[in-house]
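Notes from hallway chat w/ T.B., transcribed later so I don't forget. T.B. wanted the structure written out for a chain they're using in a teaching module, and asked if we could keep both sequence and structure tokens in one place. Agreed to drop them here.
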Amino acid sequence: MSVPVPQPMPTDEPVSRLLVPVLTFGVTIAILSARALTVFLPLMAADLNTSVSVMGQVPALMLLLSGLLALVAGPLADRYGFRRTLVVGLISVFLSAVATGFSPNLPILLAVTLVGAVARAAVLPTAQAVVVTTIGDEDARRQAIGWVTLGISTAGLLGIPIMTSVAGLTSWRVSFFVMGAMALLAAVFVRRILRDDASSVTAPLSVRALLDSYEPIRRHRPTALMMAATLLADIGLWGAFTYFAALLVERHGLTIDAVGWAFFAVSVLTVGGNVVAQGRAGKAPRPLLIGCRLVAALCVGLAFGLPLSWPVTLAFVLLAAPTFSMADVATTLVLTATSPAGRATTLTLRSAAVCFGTALGGALGGLALAIGGYESVGAFALVMLLLSTAVVWWSGAGRAPTPAPAAP
């Protein structure tokens, strides 16, 4: 029999003005710790005397482990406190980044990289859970969720340029030392800003108790279907977007510098979408989520599936870019308003679905590319994103309840 973990409810108590910036900074560092590996793959492969294809398995394995750890991180965060979970996650980035900078060979690099999987699994959903359980006002809570989720975009918009600039002046190893220092600084800030919110449950922890934490979700059809929709959406999105750079280079003949500017533009518009979701659009998260998925499905499917010129292809991707972040914010709002389980448990399960979906998307998208070229990739992404949209609609999650008939 599981022991229920009390869930803190939003209050109107004064909230530190530094709370949201600190959480956003922590999320940025956690996401950056995973994305930086892909940016430095060629340099790291040459330095460690291995191939890029072999080195590419390192971030893939980290992502898969993050998905598995997320299944444990949520219940642990609900039980032992959000502050402790965030601090542990950021410390894992510090240890992993510093050890990565000192790694002499691939096996050691793989081992120390997997330590950082803790942060990718736990920091973002736990930071979102802090916002949901701390801020009582609905508008302020929606805006705070948007800003915290913005950490996903700022990792690419600011974090990657900082690390590549440091690497250009020194080496990739120094870049990871810098990231480790930022992670340690973020952990100190979190430790000082957040209050101790550990649960009062004293019963011993068991595997059965962890599994039982997900029982309310399994029994709750809307939430379970929303998790399935998240998995399908990320399979479709990353089945295509994993190969976006290759599409621009191989089909359209763009240079790597031009590809870099394309990714920068995508990041800027993703930030813009996040800001939009914090406003009036976010007050209706279910329609926003369905609309964003439909736009993303059509734009990504057309960009990859049709032999268009590169400006038109890029235009379709840029049109889809804001929908990525708007869908992220809308999904968080729907899940936290719908799920009967703990906040961290719910959001880390969603994080696991994102990790698994990203990994599966890359693999299945690569298979589609090998079988039928970029046209097949576009068709695959279109089908998966439309299927995800249909599951969101079918779930009924986020739908306003029907008012009870007035008494005669």
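Follow-up for T.B.: Residues 279 and 349 are 26 Å apart (CA to CA). Might be a good example for the class.
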